[in-house]
Amino acid sequence: MSEPTGSETVERHEFNAEVGRLLDLVVHALYSEREIFLRELVANAADAIDKRRFEALVNPELALPADSKLRILPDKAARSITISDAGIGMTKLELGQNLGTIARSGTLAFASKVADAKAEDRPSLIGQFGVGFYSAFMVADRVEVTSRHAGSEEAWSWASEGRGDYTLAPASRAEPGTDIVLHLKEDAGEYLEPIRLQTIIRKWADHITVPIVLVHDGEEEPANAGTALWRKPKSEISEDDYAEFYRHVSHAFDTPWATLHWRAEGALDFSALLFVPGMKPFQAVEGERESRVRLHVRRMFITDQAGMLPPWLRFVTGVVDTEDLPLNVSREMLQATPVLARIRRAVTAKVLGELKSRAKDAESYAGFWENFGPILKEGLYEDAEHRKDLSALIRFRSSSVEGWTSLADYVSRMKPEQKDIYYLVGDDTEALAKSPQLEGFRARGVEVLLLADQIDSFWPERLDRFEEKPVRSITQGNIDLSQLPLEGETAEAADLSALLPKLTEALKDEVAEVRASDRLVDSAVLLSASAMGPDLQMQRLLRRAGRAGGSFAVLEVNPRHPLIRRLAESGETDLAEAAGTLLDLARLQDGDAPRDPAGFARKVTEALAGSFK
């Protein structure tokens, strides 16, 4: 219908959809953040400019002005925001079709038109669904659009309060393009502040190629970087450029340890610029397990929660930008798609390849490992697909060599008779290096890897073996070292056939077994774990978590130690007190408290007092 207003005719139209319910969905449910309205309108404006640039390839008269830019003007007095572009613009018919029909996308229609164009000529279109424009109603109670199509002298205005209808009327505009005026709601005043608008643009549209300016106090201030560093050839980028961009995306102050910049073309089409930090971030990455690599689609930021890398590479920061990733209508959540899965695999493989290459420089890699090694080891536990690759990247402290060592280096040093890769888990590397658990191995020149990270209690069982060598905890099971000859003289072993049953009876409620050990040299006793239960460190973790079940501990006694020899020769029948003391000694050696700390202290005090009589 038409309504005469002076010399002009205002046409009033109903939306061509069940607009009440749909607009309510857009305003209240489609987007998780209200500020998204500006990203959507900027994306639409960028599309319009790209469309005009594309059309100008065929019709030079439509060429963009030399100073083409996207202007954003907040007006506090009028409580409005005006977004202006010099793009392709819209005719009266297009205003009705694109803005008057919810979920009809002019961009999508245009994309089909240029599907056969050369890749370098195609505009970089962002909008697909025709609903992004309506996000304006999240902050505005009235929206006015004035547009003039490039190549036409006519301009038209579209206006709506988002309540079921809109109006079309003749208008005037000096140049082709579009102006969108948002009349803000009472609770949307924050978007009149230039600093707030600047922050939103920096977050969501910093790297689109269209220059964006914010008009403040009559002056135009640049609001976006306008370039996507990851899209530029490496030859045009300096190390300082990389470092500055790294600090921008990571909010860090160090220099990246590694920079990965590449473009994938073919079955997958994406660009990536990733960084491995040179130091641990101030905010710990152990608690937050999600990768925060930023996903862009055609330079427009979409999300940093796309899981572009697995959790065990979450310390990597940067950007992945793709051309053809399908999104859901809000552009905030990704559709489940094989394309995204392939991009993730490709990006993960690239990072692993870079780490393998850099691991050849032992000194440099040691610094990386000290920063992020515990996180990388999480992949050994949870990622079967990459476990083999990760096993070549992990590093350890050792009982036999200084510094860090790899599994491959360990295997190269194994004794000819040695079949297993041995390791010991605890809370502190220095304490592990002094553990009596190592005595029998040192006496035979057998190396043991020392593991002191929290994740070390979990992943060895998943890795199981390396280069066909079983990976085995020295505290679990009855390890037989008889095939490995001792490198020095040892005392003769006592006959423990009578002693062991007595100790077993005395400790039947405390340990699963008491047995003789061939892997002790200086210590009288040590604790180990039965082959069927968790190793000692896991048992400690379970106790701390209040989840300890039955006892899986085994008390091993040294038949060559003077104390054990004296007990075996004493002929005593009641060994309850001696057995308890031996168990407490074994617990202390492994960093645990005695069963009765006060009682144990009393015994030690009495023994010391007796020695001075």
TrEMBL record:
It is found in: Cytoplasm. It comes from the Bacteria. ATP binds at residues 40, 44, 85, 90, 98, 105-106, 128-133, 178, 331. SUPFAM superfamilies: ATPase domain of HSP90 chaperone/DNA topoisomerase II/histidine kinase (SSF55874), HSP90 C-terminal domain (SSF110942), Ribosomal protein S5 domain 2-like (SSF54211). Keywords: ATP-binding, Chaperone, Cytoplasm, Nucleotide-binding, Stress response. GO terms for cellular component: cytoplasm. Signal peptide: none annotated. InterPro entries: HATPase_C_sf, HSP90_C, Hsp90_fam, Hsp90_N, Ribosomal_Su5_D2-typ_SF. Residues 541-613 are annotated as: C. The keyword Chaperone applies. Residues 1-331 are annotated as: A. GO terms for molecular function: ATP binding; ATP hydrolysis activity; ATP-dependent protein folding chaperone; unfolded protein binding. Homodimer. Molecular chaperone. Has ATPase activity. Belongs to the heat shock protein 90 family. NCBIfam families: PRK05218.1. This is Chaperone protein HtpG. It comes from Teichococcus deserti.
